[in-house]
Design brief:
The complex is a heterodimer.
Chain A lengths: L6 H5 L3 H9 L3 H23 L2 H18 L9 H23 L2 H4 L8 H5 L4 H11 L2 H11 L5 H8 L3 H22 L1
Helix pairs in contact in A: 2-3, 3-4, 3-5, 3-9, 4-5, 8-11, 9-11, 10-11
Chain B lengths: L26 H9 L7 H4 L2 H27 L5 H12 L7 E4 L8 E4 H13 L4 E3 L24 E3 L5
Antiparallel strand pairs in B: 1-2, 3-4
Helix pairs in contact in B: 1-3
Chain lengths: 187, 167
């Protein structure tokens, strides 16, 4: 008896297999990849953008762009890294568009949402860092997220944020100092 | 001296990275040293207790950072199926159809073709139907000849990978 596989068997497949199938035009495989990676990509984009409203749009645009780029994708084994890069580019585009419209204040409603007192109320070290990160000034947070989560080098961050490398280094040092102060205080 | 039992406000908090607390090294220098996995060994840094303290704190931060986004992703509300459907609807109209493969028909007025994408979908369906097989990618080899030549084009399915199904 021939049984056509449904979502269940494809859902067990690894990223490499799914990306290969998706690049061959299998939308169902792409859907599984999206569902698998969406939570992390959204959390990452939200940290970069500082706005949940923009996160929805950016991650959607990133997936559509990923689908278009699939036929030229080189390393099917590194899907997550590849998607993070696409989300980063889309997020930076969005940030630049905001800058061009000169209404940054209107968008950046979530920074800062946390105060050091909130950090003291954290229930775990993860939570403490999460709260401390929210308390950072926008540029420091963005720089730190690109470096530590996105894995970008100083030069790449400088280029993406249109800042001198020395400024990026300064922002990173300040963000690390604050984050460590809050984490150590929580411990 | 401060009373350690007194409640501490944010202004009292100290960080191992506050400039006053390590021997003249900058956070930047120490972060770079950590990025390079502490090689080549820098004796000045390695022999400074304060720098070691700062390096340990930087390492702890990095460890937690690696898990941070995953923890936040896990805590986030699950997206509604409609969110994914909106994307699928958009990409559905830009499916990777590829070239058209002409098909022969006895009636010369008929111009029939099947897209490479449709052939790949057929190969996937056929391959997946075999127990324990999940097709990964297929590569169509050969040149598509005009229908009149009647010489069949070859299609080779490469790179199939078996997937063990439970049961």
């Amino acid at each position: 008896m021939v049984t056509l596989p449904g979502h269940s068997s494809l859902g067990d497949a690894d990223d490499r297999t799914l990306a290969g199938r998706a690049s061959d035009g299998d939308i169902r495989a792409f859907e599984i990849l999206m569902r698998r990676h969406e939570p992390l990509l959204s959390a990452y984009a939200a940290r970069l953008l500082g706005s949940y409203a923009d996160t929805d749009d950016v991650v959607q645009e990133a997936f559509i762009s990923a689908w278009q780029q699939l036929p030229t994708m080189e390393n099917f084994g590194a899907v997550r890294r590849w998607l993070i890069q696409i989300v980063t580019r889309k997020s930076i585009d969005r940030l630049r568009a905001r800058k061009d419209h000169d209404d940054i204040e209107k968008h950046d409603v979530v920074s800062p949402t946390e105060t050091p007192e909130d950090v003291a109320a954290a229930t775990s070290l993860d939570d403490a860092l999460s709260r401390a990160l929210s308390s950072l000034p926008e540029e420091q947070r963005r720089t730190w997220v690109l470096r530590e989560i996105g894995g970008y080098g100083y030069d790449e961050i400088a280029e993406q944020l249109d800042l001198p490398v020395s400024t990026v280094r300064g922002l990173l040092a300040r963000s690390r100092r604050t984050l460590i102060r809050e984490m150590e205080a929580w411990r | 001296m401060t009373d350690s039992s007194a409640p501490r406000g944010p202004e009292d908090r100290v960080s191992p990275l506050d400039e006053a607390h390590f021997d003249g090294f900058t956070v930047d220098q120490l972060s770079d040293y950590l990025d390079l996995a502490r090689t080549p060994r820098d004796e000045a840094i390695e022999s400074s207790a304060a720098a070691q303290n700062a390096l340990a704190a930087l390492s702890r931060l990095r460890k937690v950072a690696a898990k941070l986004i995953e923890a936040e992703a896990e805590a986030a509300p699950v997206r509604a199926p409609s969110w994914f459907k909106a994307i699928l609807d958009q990409i559905g109209v830009q499916a990777h159809a590829g070239r058209d493969i002409p098909l022969h028909h006895d009636d010369a007025r008929a111009h029939l073709a099947i897209s490479e994408g449709a052939v790949r979908a057929l190969i996937r369906t056929a391959g997946d139907g075999i127990d324990g097989v999940l097709v990964e990618r297929s590569r169509l080899e050969g040149t598509w000849r005009p229908p009149a030549s009647r010489s069949p084009s070859r299609s080779t399915c490469r790179s199939t990978r078996a997937l063990t199904r439970p049961g």
